[in-house]
Specification:
four-stranded antiparallel β-sheet, about 180 residues, disordered N terminus, five-stranded antiparallel β-sheet
Length: about 180
């Protein structure tokens, strides 16, 4: 097989493509595509949201309105994806689905933890300025002092005349906006 034939053959292997969903319909779109025997991937992450004076931990799409679907352009009737409930359209280029660069989706899939959410590398380290997101010290700024394996962290808060050490759940912290 010549080099040109090889590129053309690789171009039509099973590849990952991007699907744009309707607003807040990523999960129904994924479920409908799965029911049609498409292989899908919807990266999720835990988010903490405040609503009506309550703090809720919810799973949300990492890329709102987008999910990934894997198929072979040459052998799959991919046009049915655009007619799927919850789907706005496949991301296209020149009238054909535009594949995601090789390795991108595979890396995301490898980063999914036991709870089926994406596990990002922790950007925080001891000495960083942090903001507490919820709890009795919500919106307070402090310095991250230490992190434990059980997702508990020790933060030094500055109030009441000096540094006050508090232990909180790692998920209650975010890097401070400088």
């Amino acid at each position: 097989m010549s080099g040109m034939d090889q590129v053309t053959a690789q171009e039509f292997d099973d590849r990952w493509f991007v699907v744009r969903s309707l607003p807040h319909k990523e999960i129904p779109a994924r479920d409908r595509l799965d029911a049609q025997d498409f292989h899908t991937f919807l990266p999720m992450m835990d988010r903490t949201i405040r609503h009506a004076r309550r703090i809720l931990n919810v799973k949300r799409a990492v890329f709102p309105r987008y999910l990934f679907v894997r198929f072979n352009q040459r052998t799959t009737q991919w046009r049915s994806i655009n007619g799927t409930i919850g789907v706005e359209r496949l991301v296209m280029r020149n009238g054909r689905p535009s594949p995601v660069k090789r390795g991108v989706v595979e890396t995301l899939i490898e980063s999914v933890g036991d709870d089926s959410t994406l596990q990002f590398k922790d950007p925080l380290k001891a000495g960083d300025r942090v903001r507490l997101l919820y709890g009795p010290f919500a919106d307070q700024l402090g310095i991250l002092q230490s992190m434990r394996a059980d997702d508990r962290v020790r933060v030094l808060l500055s109030f009441l005349g000096g540094p006050i050490p508090v232990e909180v759940d790692r998920k209650s912290l975010a890097p401070a906006d400088d």
